[in-house]
Every structure is written in C-alpha cells, then in structure tokens.
Amino acid sequence: MTDLSNDTLNLAGRVYRSRLLVGTGKYKDMDETRAAIEASGAEIVTIAVRRTNIGQNKDEPNILDVLPPDRYTILPNTAGCYDQKTAVRTCKLARELLDGHKLVKLEVLGDEKTLFPDVIQTLAAAEELVKDGFDVMVYTNDDPIVAKRLEEIGCIAVMPLAAPIGSGLGIRNKLNILTIVENAKVPILVDAGVGTASDAAVAMELGCDGVLMNTAIAAARNPVLMASAMRKAIEAGREAFLAGRMPAKRFASASSPVDGLFF
Asked: What's the predicted TM-score (pTM) here?
C-alpha cells in the first residue's frame, strides 16, 4: 500500500490534509452550514466579505461563531467586486477584521450574467495586493497564458474556472485545465462550475491540487450528504492521479492473457 501521509496541500507556508475547499453561501441556516462543512472534511473555508458578517456588523450573527478560525483557515474572498479598487478595499477590510490575516481569494467579475472574471482588472488587483503583502489565491478563466501571468505576479495559487460560477456544468475544457497544471509551479485549484462528485474527481485526475466549491454542495437536495460525497471524490481523484491511469485504447484488450493457452 502506497503511503500518502506526506501528500499534502501547501499554501502560504501551511500544510493541509484536505484538498477540498468550501464556501459558506446559499445554505438555509448556520446549522446546515456547519454540518455540511464538517462533513466535507475541509480545512479551508472561503467567506464573501461583502455578503457575510465576519465582525463588521456587530448586531448580526457572525459566521465565525460556527466556523471558528482556530479550527478552520478562513479565506476571505472578494465575491461581488467588479473592479480593482473595490476588490483591494475588500481585502484590506478582511485583513483588518481578522487581525492582520493575509490569505485572500481574489475574484474580480466582468458582468452579472456570466460572472466570468474581468481579466484586466484581476491582473491589476493581484499585482497591487501582492505588493501590499497579501497571499493571493486568484480566480480566473481557463486561459493558460493568463494563469501563468498571475503566477509570475506572485499569486500563491491560481484557480481557473471549470464552468460559470454556480452552473454545475462540470469541467468544460479539460485540455486547458491540463495545460495550466502542466505549466504551473504553484498550486492549481479548480474553482467554479463543479456540479457533482464526478466533476471533482475529474479535476483531481487532471492533476489539480484541489477544488473549491460552494453551490454544488449547498444547492444539493441533501447538502450534508453531498459534502461527504465530494470529500470522497477528491480523495479518489487524487489517488487515481498519483496511481497513473492505464492508456486509453480504441479496441478491446483481454483482462487475462491468452498467449500460451491450450485449446
């Protein structure tokens, strides 16, 4: 049996056993949020600072009460930002609220219908945040050239979309994701578009270092059970990648050799 005890995800100087990162939106209540995230086994939880209270609204429930930072790595994100200025300001707010926390997920959206990233604004925001000392994990499209440029800027992880945010369509362009993975010297995590466990497994089989998801779990009929399924899919996909799949063949190949048989 191969020992996978040292097969870890490394981000900003920290080591994680789980390669599944999860969001906190769209659950029916805080109890379901907590239960699903526990079932996922995730160690990194991303929170939309502009939509979720992490201390900026003193009279509202604080999500950190059910997802304590001493148990989870909190990954503030800039969901809902459509320009460089707003995204950078949101990251600075998160750093202030979380006592100097530097790890952030940057996303700068291009339009409300597709939620595709605005690549020009994303590049500019990433450069500004890196210079300001942030550890930036960045959401982008599945363009290998842009992914490499974000790595060169200094982002600690690049997160190409599989499909539009919340679409559940799965990985639409496996070849682009594979090219991004092959060219990268930083972790590559699929972000957005995963719909079910098989999508997560495919991402891992392509060699991605992890997957971030929210809607695929929160919008399932049974979010807690789906979170458990995603956990297993990530683990299975990673093991399959490390094992090395058999070559695909056009024609049949007998499972048992026939050479030397007596007839």
From this structure: 0.93
